[in-house]
Amino acid sequence: MTADTATPAGPVQSVGRALGLLEHLADAGEPLGLSELAAACRLPVSTTHRMLGGLCTAGYLYKGPDRRYRLGPRLVALGGAALLPIGPDISGWLGRLVQLTGETANAATLCGDTVLFVAQVQSSQPMRTSTEVHRTTAAHCSAVGKALLSLLPDAEVAALAGRTGLPRRTDRTLGSTEELLAAVHAVRRAGHAVDDEEEEDGARCVAVPVPSAPFPLAVSVAGPTARITRDRVPVIAGELHRVIGRSP
Question: Given CB 3.0 to 4.6 Å as the disulfide criterion, which of 168, 193, 217, 235 pairs with 147?
Answer without folding.
Answer: 193
